[in-house]
Amino acid sequence: MIGALMLGFLAGAIARLVMPDAFSHISGWRSWVLSTALGLCGAALGWLIFTDWLGIGDTQVFDLGGLVGAIIGTMILLPIAGYILKRTGTVQRLERR
Question: Which of 20, 45, 49, 85 could form an SS bridge with 90, CB 3.0 to 4.6 Å?
């Protein structure tokens, strides 16, 4: 469990460095919580793409060997999540707090 959180945080942080504009409108700790959650989802998506569909890698979802897949999965999810947050008005509610 702790390893999955660390992998999600690391994947989210690296994806934020590569794609800094994805959550530029949300500042503070909320953006890091979102990045960590998206990092966990991105790790699952990366595992699904690389291990399940392409047959590359091992069968463990959250391991450091799958960090590249987790980062790629997070980079896929970041613009989608940013679009959804903007469309639903969640960004404005998060900015006011």
Answer: 85
